[in-house]
Specification:
By secondary structure, this protein is α+β, with helices and mostly antiparallel strands. It folds into two domains: 2-79, Glutaredoxin, CATH 3.40.30.10; 86-199, Glutathione S-transferase Yfyf (Class Pi), Chain A, domain 2 (Up-down Bundle), CATH 1.20.1050.10. 50% of the residues lie in helices and 8% in strands. It contains nine helices and four strands; from the N terminus they run βαβαββααααααα. Strands 2-1-3-4 form a four-stranded mixed β-sheet, with helices on one face. Strand 1 (2-5), helix 1 and strand 2 (27-30) form a beta-alpha-beta unit. Helix 1 packs across helix 7. The protein starts with a strand and ends in an 11-residue tail after the last helix.
């Protein structure tokens, strides 16, 4: 397998965690987003959206981090990234989507670039935009973790799941942009526990071959 990714990409980090949890080897293919390498002809031939991550598994080429992780879960079932029961699977997917669909798209680098370059938003206001959506989005996750049954050492029980693979990279980005996190203590408790585990710690951005 080959994983085309960028060390700071939170979507790429999700997949690196999933691969590590399953103990799967892969070739690391760096695509430097700030150098616009995703727009090269060679990469465009692989990725119609010109985004990372991209997983190539034999003749199969897969995009979108959550789809990639579910593919890995179906093709390499142990350890599972989704609970055995339908309600648990729905809860884990829902938590992952709270981050991947409600927080991340509003703060994607191409969105932030558009705010600055096309709409003339100042860097200060761009960062305010980022912090607002991350802080309010994580507050939703916090409320769910506190009020719904299911949370344990991880987002769902005592085993890392799709939700944790999605949560941890978002916290890395939140810290990089100096977001307020004291209002989400349960989120941070789970994050800190995840970071004691090699699958999360050894795949973090600073540990990547292309880290700067």
């Amino acid at each position: 397998m080959e994983l085309f990714n960028y060390f700071r990409s939170s979507a790429s980090y999700r997949v690196r965690i999933a691969l590590a949890l399953k103990g799967l080897d892969y070739d690391y293919r760096a695509v430097h987003l700030l150098k616009q390498e995703q727009h090269s002809e060679a990469y465009a031939d692989l990725s119609a959206a010109r985004l990372v991550p991209l997983l190539r598994d034999g003749d199969a080429v897969l995009s979108q981090s959550l789809a990639i992780m579910e593919y890995l879960d179906e093709t390499h079932p142990e350890p599972p990234l989704l609970p055995a029961d339908a309600l648990g699977r729905a809860r884990v997917r829902s938590l992952a989507l709270d981050i991947a669909c409600e927080i991340h798209p509003l703060n994607n680098p191409r969105v932030l670039r558009y705010l600055v370059r096309e709409l003339g938003v100042s860097d200060e206001n761009k960062d305010r935009w980022y912090r607002h959506w991350v802080e309010t989005g994580l507050e939703v996750v916090e409320r769910r973790l506190v009020n719904e049954p299911g949370a344990g050492s991880y987002c769902h029980g005592e085993q890392a799941s799709l939700a944790d693979c999605t949560l941890v990279p978002q916290i890395f980005n939140a810290r990089r942009f100096e977001c307020r996190l004291d209002h989400v203590p349960t989120v941070m408790r789970i994050f800190e526990h995840c970071m004691t585990q090699p699958a999360f710690a050894n795949t973090q951005p600073a540990a990547c071959p292309d880290a700067e």
